[in-house]
TrEMBL record:
Signal peptide start and end residues: 1-26
InterPro entries given in the database record: Class_I_gatase-like (IPR029062), ThuA-like (IPR029010)
Species this protein is from: Nonomuraea deserti
Record's protein name: ThuA domain-containing protein
Domain ThuA-like, residue spans: 113-321
Length: 331
């Protein structure tokens, strides 16, 4: 993975809590939703929210309005920028994660731990520090997490957090912390509503065949999409989501018509029709979150050639930099 992006200065976000309009809800002016509607083959078109199982607010301020962010001064750019990568698996393990890591912080890596190595390399080339772990005890303290500008869940699976880590992550985000969810971060903590909201009101449901497709860059203003082509080829599992994201800024989608082997998932999900999101961003409960379902193929994390991998790398790096505070977020 290579990138030539330079480091930019972060733009501050206003810290203004919104006024609740009903118990447990808040108005978020200008919040975006997934555009358009989805068509199920053989049936009439239906709005995306019908497949979303509603649009809950999770009892927090969420959406694209920076007033949902808590700018409490916990992250001083003068101290540098630091990312914690968490890749614990409590179920199936993606090949790009390789051999499970030993306990502790920054244990020795093996040749097959290609995704973690790739993120470390991105940090070395772009001016941010990277720690990594699969030890849940390293996430058990909000105070410890606050030494990081962002936490990345990299293809974690199922119940990757215990009670202490769940509490710490929530307190960290509420203190203005950043979250980056990559690929199977969507197959994690299924039964925790707050985490589902952190993902943008989204969860992995199933996927079709791992196959080539065309990514459509929906919003080219964001740091993570600037410089990307309007469309670009890539191969992935193309996650189907239930629910699917709402009140977020959709950054990229997959064109389902380009999936030669179809989009229907192994559990019967028919796909999302004209608007099948693969990347988005939002403010959530005081913090920032940048999310992508992309990143399945091992080649996407190595120097082995794969069509579109340079665009994926640029996209991911831009998202990381924006959450770290090195560039404007979700604009």
């Amino acid at each position: 993975m290579r990138s030539e992006l330079s480091i930019a200065t972060a733009a501050g976000a206003a810290a203004l809590l919104l006024t609740a309009t009903a118990p447990g809800s808040a108005t978020v002016p200008g919040s975006a939703t997934v555009p358009g509607s989805a068509t199920v083959p053989g049936s009439a078109a239906s709005p995306a929210p019908a497949r979303n199982l509603g649009d809950p607010d999770y009892g927090v301020c969420r959406g694209t309005d920076p007033r949902c962010y808590h700018d409490w001064g916990n992250f001083d750019p003068a101290k540098g920028h630091k990312l914690l990568v968490y890749s614990r698996t409590a179920g199936p393990r993606h090949a790009h994660l390789g051999t499970p890591l030993a306990p502790g912080l920054n244990p020795p890596l093996n040749d097959d731990n290609v995704a973690v190595k790739a993120v470390i390399e991105l940090g070395e080339e772009n001016g941010f520090a990277v720690d990594y772990t699969e030890d849940v005890s390293q996430l058990s303290s909000a105070g410890r997490l606050l030494s990081y500008n962002a936490v990345m869940f990299l293809s974690t699976t199922r119940d990757a957090l215990d009670d202490a880590a769940q509490t710490a992550l929530r307190q960290y985000v509420r203190a203005g912390g950043g979250f980056i969810g990559v690929h199977n971060a969507f197959g994690t903590e299924y039964n925790w509503p707050w985490y589902e909201g952190l993902l943008g009101n989204a969860n992995f449901y199933d996927h079709g065949a791992n196959q080539p497709g065309t990514v459509v860059t929906v919003d080219r203003r964001d740091v993570s999409t600037q410089g990307l082509p309007r469309t670009w080829a890539f191969s992935d599992e193309w996650y189907n989501l239930v629910p699917a994201p709402t009140r977020v800024r959709v950054l990229a989608e997959v064109d389902e018509d380009t999936l030669a082997r179809g989009v229907r998932g192994n559990l019967g999900h028919p796909g999302h029709g004209d608007h099948h999101p693969v990347s988005w961003c939002q403010y959530y409960d005081g913090g920032k979150a940048w999310l992508t379902t992309l990143g399945h193929d091992v080649k996407a994390w190595t120097d082995e050639p794969m069509e579109g991998d340079q665009h994926f790398t640029r996209h991911l790096l831009g998202g990381v930099r924006s959450v770290l505070g090195m560039a404007p977020f979700c604009r």
